[in-house]
Amino acid sequence: MDSGLTVGNTDGQDLVSATVAIGGVLNGDVLAFNGGASSETFSDGSTIHATHVPTSGVLTLSGTASATDYQTAFDSVTFSSTSSVGSRTVSWTTNDDLLAGNTATSNVKLASAGPTLSTGGTVTFTGGGSAVVLDSTAAITDPKSGSWVIG
Question: Among the residues of the chain, which ranges form H helices?
Fold first, then answer.
């Protein structure tokens, strides 16, 4: 989610937890860990578990593991939303059981996909004749609102 985020621990101690939180969370905002998994076991044998609370927008990672393992865990965090407008600030923190680390932030700007129009009908109009529907199969789809059929 943020390729510039770096996890470290200057005292060399393993980390025990981390939190990723969406500021201004809206219904439909989701943080996922490792493709939606609830845990990941690393080559050194450490396991990090994930718990996501959608209503608060908080993803909690827990388990004693190295800063490198937590970096890998953070690298696997993704954000998705059913909302198509606005922006969110995501905060990242770690804890080594002695001290909480500093908080880093990432900004996520939601880009709205515009409506799409599909057509496919063919119509024949005879000059001087009655009006005809141009395309009874025309449809507009708006990701924010659903679909409508025109015709």
Answer: 67-75
Instruction: For 25-66, give the secondary structure using H, E and C.
Output: CCCCCEEECHHHCCEEECCCCCEEEEEEECCCCEEEEEEEEC
State pTM to two decimals.
0.72
Single-letter amino acid code for the residue at 83: S
Handedness of CA 94, 98, 37, 81 (dihedral sign): negative
pLDDT at residue 71 in the model: 92
CA distance 5 to 7: 7
The Cα angle at residue 25 between residues 72 and 51, in degrees rounded to 5: 45
Residue 104 has pLDDT above 80, yes or no: yes
pLDDT for res 141: 75
Q: How confident is the model at residue 151 (pLDDT cuts 50, 70, 90)?
A: very low
User: Taking residues 69-86, what's their average pLDDT?
Assistant: 89
Q: Are strands 30-32 and 104-109 parallel, antiparallel or unpaired?
A: unpaired
**For 14, phi and psi rounded to 5 degrees?**
-65, 155
